Amino acid sequence: MVNTSFHEHEAAVYDEIHQAMWKSLPEHFSIISDRILATGSVPDSLSLLDIGCGTGLGTELLLHTEIGKRVREIHLLDTSSTMMDHAAVRSRNWPARTFTYLGGMAALPEDSKFDLVLASSVLHHIPNLVCFFEHVAGVQRPGSFFIHLQDPNGDYLDDPELRHRTALGAKNTQPQLPRFILRFSPGRILRRVLRELTGRQHETYIDLTNKDLLATEVITSPLTAEEIWSVTDVHLYDGLGISLGVMKKELTKYELIHTHSYAFFGHLSSDLPPPLLLEERRLLRNNAPNGMDLAAVWRRCNC
User: Fold this and answer.
1) On the CB side of 245, how many CA atoms lie within 13 Å of its CA?
2) Of the four listed, 108, 143, 218, 262, which is most buried by Cβ atoms within 10 Å?
3) Quick check: pTM over 0.85?
């Protein structure tokens, strides 16, 4: 109920509050596209499934890449009807047939198979990742690709160099948008005050979520923003993030063909001042593993 209500109300402001993400992610989609094409085993006509599609911005960014030019069929999946409505409007400008499904993986047509599965800013929302990965494997044929990005880089959240750079980024950056709150060491949470995104005279999506939860007696008193996010963004608040080491054990039907990290100063590139942006670019070119955020591509095995 918390997840459903939160994302329904967030949909109205999603594109606005995540501007930094959508300004910064094109380069990462481009890197992913190049790596997939480098395998030399990509058909000219692809079907795409965007899991947790939100307002459709992830698919739109992918369509602007070289691999996106091969997408002929798009399937959008989300549990929020309002998010899906926004995605459906956006899809009118896409050069591919688009289908929408409201709900979880069970909402997909039986025996569905997809060449590309995209999960952008999704994995950290899913409590049971083992079950989720099994569902993903079930809708992909051998040789197809599973893409995920914009998740906390769980294997490096305790990295001293990342902590140092993040402190430097906090000192030299004035972000306009909230960033996720991550645990950097056991028992300690680095917290930032997340400001209201609309004026005090207006109800925010946090206020509206609390109204829903109070009206349905899910809660008896309003939750803070952090309390709500601790439910909706579970792997950000548990401090574990998304670990490639763990995923390699769980994705037994896949091989990891590419990974890179980014947000080396705790902020996306569009929020960085020029000196830090230059260093961000250098670390990205050198494929430094210890950025705050993670992107990866997996190929479904013939097993």
Assistant:
1) 7
2) 262
3) yes
